[in-house]
Design goal:
The chain has 13 helices and 6 strands. By secondary structure, the chain is α+β, with helices and mostly antiparallel strands. The chain binds zinc ion (ZN).
Length: 312
């Protein structure tokens, strides 16, 4: 359900866009500076008071023509679309214009849907300069995006914290981390000297000035982390199936009191996996989600379909 929130933005379809001619618009711009072009083509500056999504159809059509006349490449538009949270198809239509207007409204810009010099400048600042070409750090694969969505969702951020993150990275601030947020995070990371993986891990959270929720002792001792793991498992409705006892591999961390096995519904085991993943465990095994050994993601190891094993 979390994904659905961000994907409700319908794809901006060139078919439904008014048939403005980019060529004739662009010819109007020839030889003019962006500032001059902006002044001549922007009929009204709505000064931020315009609520998102309340542009009239004439204003939308006008903004579509204006944006198409800006001479930006499809790659640049995809980057802008990612930042403003609309479908990144590289084609400027009404949906992109409305998403731009919403983004402008939340960035104290005139919410007219037109990507003029001021909006473009702010988009560049927020998206790591990626609208200037190249796409910056926004080139995650679909599986990297979904892994980052799960990782971020497992961090226990409150909805308020997620909104703070979204405003900082320039994605739609709806309080839910989905694919568009992850791509905006990756672009922001690339612009801040961080690994552009879209995951709000400790370094990114620190730079954003946000904290993971849930009271997880991410920087605590092994025993603090293990103790939290047991409490957290019970708190979310899982049961502890093994601590130091039971039958395990000969050198298992269970025998040194560093591991716990928990079991319950698949969705809760999944949640637990990603909550533990955010705590950088020594070992973490749950085959449907993957596995971690000495802090490295190693994929599923087998034999862990019906319980989650975690060791610190
Ligand atoms: Zn185990």
């Amino acid at each position: 359900m979390q994904h659905a929130v961000e994907s409700t933005t319908a794809p901006a379809s060139s078919a439904q866009a008014p048939q403005a001619s980019p060529e004739s618009s662009r010819s109007d711009l020839r030889g003019m500076s962006f500032a001059a072009a902006s002044a001549s083509l922007a009929p009204v500056q709505l000064k931020g008071a315009q609520a998102a999504g309340t542009l009239s159809s004439a204003q939308v059509a006008s903004a579509v023509r204006y944006n198409r006349g800006r001479g930006l490449s499809a790659a640049q538009w995809r980057s802008i679309q990612k930042t403003v949270g609309s479908a990144a198809d590289g084609v400027v239509g009404p949906n992109t214009v409305r998403a731009v207007a919403r983004w402008q409204a939340s960035h104290h810009l005139g919410a007219d849907g037109m990507v003029g010099p001021q909006t473009l400048g702010k988009l560049n600042a927020g998206a790591g300069g990626s609208t200037g070409g190249g796409g910056g750090g926004a080139k995650l694969t679909a599986s990297q995006v979904s892994a980052a969505v799960r990782y971020n969702q497992g961090r226990g951020f409150s909805s308020t914290t997620v909104k703070t993150i979204q405003k900082a990275v320039g994605s739609g601030a709806d309080g839910v981390i989905g694919p568009n947020t992850v791509r905006a995070i990756a672009a922001w990371q690339a612009n801040h000297g961080l690994s552009a993986d879209g995951k709000v891990g400790p370094a990114t959270a620190g730079k954003l000035g946000v904290k993971a929720g849930g009271g997880a002792p991410v920087n605590g001792s092994r025993s603090q982390k293990l103790s939290y793991a047991k409490q957290h498992a019970v708190a979310i409705g899982l049961r502890i199936t093994s601590t130091t006892g039971g039958k395990h591999a000969p050198n298992s961390y269970h025998y040194s009191g560093r591991a716990v096995d928990v079991a319950g519904s698949a969705s809760k085991m999944r949640q637990f996996y990603w909550d533990m993943h955010a705590m950088r465990p020594t070992e973490l095994f749950y085959d449907p989600c993957g596995g971690v050994k000495h802090g490295q993601d190693i994929g599923a190891i087998g034999g862990h379909n019906d319980h989650v094993h975690v060791a610190f």
